[in-house]
Design goal:
Length: about 300
Amino acid sequence: MMNKMVPALLAVMMGATTWLAGCSSQSTNTQISTATVIGSVPSETSDNALGEKLDYKIIGIDAGSGSMVKTEEVMNLYGLDKWQLVEGSDAAMTAALIKAYEAKEPIIITGWTPHWMFKKMDLKYLADPKNGFGGAEQIHTIVRKGLKEAKPAAYQFLDKFWWEPADMESVMVQMIEGKDPEVAAAEWVKNNEAKVAKWVEGIQPVQKEKLTLAYVAWDSEIASTHVVEHVLEQKLGYEVELSQVQTGPMWAGVAIGDVDGMVAAWLPSTDASYLKKFGGQIEDLGPNLDGTKIGLVVPSYMNISSIEDLQ
């Protein structure tokens, strides 16, 4: 297997694993400085407004991701002109969240489910009365045009791939507890042979054909992509190359045929702009997971319940 993973994944693995082991120090080489984000936040008992406590910052992830694009739209919808959406990564966002949570300080992040942070911390979504983020979504499998004819075994498997949020979460938790994504994926496949057998039933394996998959450095997509990679290699005989990129290049790579596919398209809302741009150049095989959600997330100890409270 060839894997073009970048330091963001290593950062979230080391940072979250250190936290889970009970250590208080966190470090990550990302654009967000956790000391800057929460180091000077006044006490919850001060008379300052929440916005002033947080320096009017909402902690986001990688620029250009569907989650960030949608959050900017929602901020405009609610007139949050004073607030700034801070760019970073999944690793930086979770590091900032962990530090704030340990200190019981306020913080607002762009969040989504499935995600391991909801299993490890008591968090809540802010109500979205204007439905700016939309309702529950699905994660879709997207492939390049012509894949059905060029690599029929891979196409058939990707078309069958379907799992539940609990499946994805179990892989993510193993990763955060210190296992490499490849190991966590392999263990999940071993423990779920009946489900995997249905994915590959009736598909003729190949002899070391090359296949490229793109994904973004979100724990959810790291989990799903590594499970798919493991099945393609161990059950169907492919040599899989993983390309970790940002959301826009992921979609563009499939559209122009530089990569064969991805299992990381959040639709119909989060990645709507990319589907509109590239929809005529790709093939949508439909959902591989149902019941996802994005929104603004805060620790449950915060005395705030709605996005309207930020106005």
